Amino acid sequence: MTNPPRGGPVEPEPPLTSPSLDPVDWDAYRVEAHRLLDAVLDEIRDVAAGPAWRPLPDDIKAGFAAPLPQDGEPIAAVWAQCRDTVMPYGVGNRHPRFLGWVHGAGTVGGMLGELAAAGLNANLGGRDHAPVYLERQVVAWFRDLFGFPETAAGLLVTGTSTANLIGVTVARTAAAGPRVRQHGVAGLRLVGYASDQVHGCVAKAFDITGLGRDALRLIPTDRNFRIEIPALQAAIAADRRAGFQPFLVVGCAGTVNTGAIDPLPQLADLAAAEGLWFHVDGAFGGLVRLAPALAPLVAGIERADSLAFDFHKWLHVPYDAGGILVRDGALQVATFGGRAPYLAGADGGTAGGEPWFCDLGIDLSRGFRALKVWFTLKEHGARRLGAKIADNCRLAAYLAARVIAAPDLELAAPVPLNIVCLRYVAPDDARDGDALNAAIVVELQRRGLAVPSTTVLERRLAIRVNITNHRTQAADLDLLVRAIQAIGRELTGRAEGAPIGE
Amino acid sequence: MTNPPRGGPVEPEPPLTSPSLDPVDWDAYRVEAHRLLDAVLDEIRDVAAGPAWRPLPDDIKAGFAAPLPQDGEPIAAVWAQCRDTVMPYGVGNRHPRFLGWVHGAGTVGGMLGELAAAGLNANLGGRDHAPVYLERQVVAWFRDLFGFPETAAGLLVTGTSTANLIGVTVARTAAAGPRVRQHGVAGLRLVGYASDQVHGCVAKAFDITGLGRDALRLIPTDRNFRIEIPALQAAIAADRRAGFQPFLVVGCAGTVNTGAIDPLPQLADLAAAEGLWFHVDGAFGGLVRLAPALAPLVAGIERADSLAFDFHKWLHVPYDAGGILVRDGALQVATFGGRAPYLAGADGGTAGGEPWFCDLGIDLSRGFRALKVWFTLKEHGARRLGAKIADNCRLAAYLAARVIAAPDLELAAPVPLNIVCLRYVAPDDARDGDALNAAIVVELQRRGLAVPSTTVLERRLAIRVNITNHRTQAADLDLLVRAIQAIGRELTGRAEGAPIGE
Question: Which of A362, A483, A467 lies closest to B161 in space, CA to CA?
Fold first, then answer.
């Protein structure tokens, strides 16, 4: 042992590293983890007994202003805070009477898939590991479901917003060649087409890709909210005469407003004749391919050049999970491929596994969202998932029939799929019907009875009931109808507020 | 009771809906869920005892070719297949000797946060619910950490690829005005700047946004791989003379190759003087703000107009989770905002909660990735997470010292942060050093000893050791050095293959 230098004792050298972030006491930690799991399971099991939505109290809102924690807390304390301030105040989409926007309801098995994925913590950007093969399997399942050829490529993404962005970007490459990646779109006059019912994220994709929203021509729709083919043809011809380069037509397989499905075979024919890329936004509607009786509604989807769809909507995979398929897989790689030296592949070892998913889309780091999709498909099977989709459409028809039969309700649009747009009408009331219907929706939500949303159809506000919910039963819709009527009477001063029971 | 019509008994009417996808037997299902959780916990606890990576056997690969399941299986069978064919064959980034690319190692608490999020199944696109407030809290934490003002906005995204894309898109709006959304970029001559070490996803962002990769000027770097300010100034001046419109400079806070940090204060000064948007890619390096001794390395980051960074790298949040901050929050909304009638907000009820996150980025449907981030920060606290970052940098310096001291190893680049690029050198060997070093890496991986990656620096291949791993200890790097040397001797025929123990 050497002597300490003069002047005092040596400071002990600090250890090179502190302990890992793993639990110090695994057994104690495990107990807490199981408690958390039990609480989450209880909550899902009992969800229907609670309100469809509850407002977040102001004191809880204020609690979210706390600054970045400098010191840690035991996991039990972290979970307790989450349990008390977050879990009871979700948006409500697990509830059988959550009928707003287009939300999936989640499943326990999907949650377990996500748990396993988070434990494995894989990065699906590329490299050679089982998660990559599993994601390829999921892509192949949906490639086959949608009738795409084996030369198609695809990958999982956050959702259809990103999937549509990828579709538009590949279409841009198809029209302008891969040199568009180097040179940009300056000097090009690309224009695309979709119905005036197309989801807003398609215009956003035109915006982000530098083509500009004006380059997406919105074509009028018929009384069933489907694109008018003659109007589309006229728009293409006019653009060609004006020196634009038509390059893309987007078909809607289930519009967000009413569930309308564009005439996909005619769009496919037209795209072929005009030399346009045919992209389909099948966010939720495309999945009716799983229900044999409904699949003919989206005939022609198998002719798309690219297809965007979601797993977190009508397949109830926990958020977020969408998919993109591209018929010509090589073109997808030509659009997004190319890696720097620090991402070089190798013939063996961890850096194998070509092709890497980062060459097929925007993200290099990618979570293992394929696993929760795989769990969902394996646990329930295509038939049952398809049956639940058919259930939802049958429920929509049931609700539409109830609306038609009710003197104080009216349908605001045809019901081709799973969406019912309706209005409460008070014939002897001079007040603004839009404001009244909007107020009814807010009251339904505030009281936790049900969560429909609203939309605007032909310049009038409608109550929009969207059924992408495996827990919804006919009795839930009976309650919804009674509640709309009772709140409508109440708001128009024709009845006292009264409890609306099941 | 009415009589059946003539001709036979009535078919009973099918029920309107089948049962939900919830477990039929909750108790039995719960047992399986707990088994799954235990197995995942065991695996994380014991990860260091296994190999850093193991190749996926061919028979398991072949199993992933099974078609879309038509019928479901019990959750226990689904999990058993995942446990046997997926979980042992991850990319390896939980292992203490996973030192490749830039992967986080994950934490148990982050996994539990993801479990709770998947159970709640929230969609964070917008609306009024606790998850939205929690994500805002996480954004505020990092806004404060990085010294951004309260007027800043931001949101969580999949990772820095998407965060950089958002940053470039907002910068485009700043330069061209919000009309660029309608008109596109045709007619604009925007050009941006970054060092030749910038991550490939920045060029990809230029590509996707229609500006083109050529519009990103790659500026030479100094011997420490930092951008050369005089060369940058010259490039800007040349572009202005040629009629281009310089609009953006990207600073690297930790390059992927070597961890180099650009001179951020000088870049901020230059951006201010030239009227450019100053975006910082701080994917992992930005997080040294959490380690007081290292924070000065990224001084100037608080002057960025936008900042991209990841939670799934140096904060070990399970994949995927990144973030974007924009100093002028209103400009972020001006770039991505605007919603269709079916997404209208409301003064009360579920459709409240403005501003909606979908107005700040690409995605409308968004998972609750904020919760796993929140769990991680709450459980460990900023101090400890910062200490682990400092640990990793100390380990990198330790490894660099060992490399310098070894006659058969050489450093390929300075080590400013957590990345060590090195080469095995066999002075008396005429073989190609690049091929030899690549082969050493593959062998290290194949044998499960360690997983470094490779890169190319000054046209020579280097073994790249990246330490963003809370489990790595000095002994792991000792083993790595011994293994590189032993495999190097073996591959150059100077020694037999011998076991390399810990």
Answer: A362
DSSP string, B231-272: HHHHHHHHHHHTT-EEEEEEEEBS-TTT--B--HHHHHHHHH
The rounded distance, in Å, linking the Cα atoms of A433 and A440 is 10
Which residues pair with residue B464 across a beta bridge?
B421, B453
Give the chain A residue nearest B178 (alpha carbons). Answer: A207
The runs of H, that is alpha helices, within B46-95 are 58-63, 75-85
Distances (CA, A) of B274 to B257, B268, B278, B426, B483: 28, 10, 10, 49, 50
**Lowest mean pLDDT, pick from A13-17, A209-213, B98-102, B447-451:** A13-17
Q: What is the DSSP letter of A280?
A: E
CB B500 within 8 A of CB B483: yes
B366 and B123 in contact (C-beta within 8 Å)? Answer: yes
Ranges assigned E (strand) in A176-237: 190-195, 216-219
Which chain A residue has its CA at the smallest distance from B133's CA?
A: A64
Q: Helices B160-176 and B200-208, interaxial angle, to 10°?
A: 50
Q: Do B185 and A212 touch (CB under 8 A)?
A: yes
The CA angle B42-B45-B51, to the nearest 5 degrees, is 100
Residue whose entry in the numeric block shows the structure tokens 């496919």 = A268
Tens of pLDDT along B423-442?
Answer: 999 877 666 899 999 999 99
Chain A hits for B189, Cβ within 8 Å? 186
Q: Quick check: helix, strand or coil at residue B372?
A: helix
What is the chain A residue with the closest CA to B198? A340
Q: How far, in Å, CA of A248 to CA of A234, rounded?
A: 15
Name chain B contacts of A128, Cβ cutoff 8 Å: 55-56, 91
Give the predicted TM-score (pTM) of the model: 0.96
Report CB contact under 8 Å: B90, A391.
Answer: no
| Predicted pLDDT at A474 | 97
Say how far apart CA A184 and CA B338 lie, in whole Å.
Answer: 25
CB A246 within 8 A of CB A193: yes
Q: Judge whether A158 and B158 are in contact, CB under 8 Å.
A: yes
**Are A235 and A220 a contacting pair, CB within 8 Å?**
no
How does A408-424 read in b/e, with b if 16+ C-beta sit within 10 Å? bbebbbbbbbbbbbbbb
- Alpha carbons B28 and A45: distance in angstroms, whole number: 13
Q: Is A302 helix (H, G, I), strand (E, B) or coil?
A: helix
* Residues of chain B neighbouring A453 (CB-CB closer than 8 A): 342, 350-351
Residue A304 CB coordination number (10 Å): 29
pLDDT tens digits, one per residue of A279-294: 999 999 999 999 999 9
Between chains, do A87 and B394 touch, taking CB under 8 Å as contact? Answer: no
> CA-CA distance, B192 to B278, in Å (whole number)?
10
List of chain B residues whose C-beta atoms are within 8 Å of the C-beta of residue A127:
91
Number of H helices, E strands in chain A: 14, 12
Q: Which residues of B touch A68 (CB under 8 A)?
A: 141-142, 144-145, 377, 382
- Residue B4 has a pLDDT of 44
pLDDT score at B15: 78
State which residue of chain B sits closest to A374, comparing Cα positions.
Answer: B78
Is residue A260 a contact partner of residue A292, using CB atoms and an 8 Å limit? no
